[in-house]
Amino acid sequence: MHSIMQLIPNGHLPAMILVGLILFSGVFFGRMMHRVQLPALMGYMLLGIIIGPAAANILPAAILHKLDFVTELALGFVAISIGFELNFKILKSQGKQLLSIVVWESTVTFIVVTAIGLLVTGNTPLSLLLGAVGVATAPAGTVAVIQENNARGPFARTLLA
Questions:
Q1: Which residues of 26-63 are buried (b: 16+ CB within 10 A; e: fewer)?
Q2: Which of 14, 51, 73, 114 could form a disulfide with 131 if both were Cys (CB 3.0 to 4.6 A apart)?
């Protein structure tokens, strides 16, 4: 499999065209996941694995580093979505329950991601870093799946809170 840069005559592809191709591919992979009744988020992650340095290396790490702004933009949209869903009445009425959920979710996420990182890499500092990042990004996937499925009810409200 070739790097995308080897397929381009002068070795340069405008960033916006590259971002557009990635977004188009992401939509395609997301729709394919819907067909097998999985969240679109799984398709996005699968695409990232396939085109990233871990598998086909279509987009090498050097190019991915230049596209960091896309990650920041996406996380910004997720944060805004979380803000739209935030309801202080629910937070007040379920305070102790929410605190318990947050502590358990964070702890379990950290432990599981760190353990998998240790099994895969054997590198303790890297695994601890991955565990910390896993805790920080866990809400993004939850919000995306809840919104994609238009989930309603007490469980969805508690998760969003």
A1: beebbeebeeeeebbbbbbebbbebbbeeeeebbeeeb
A2: 114
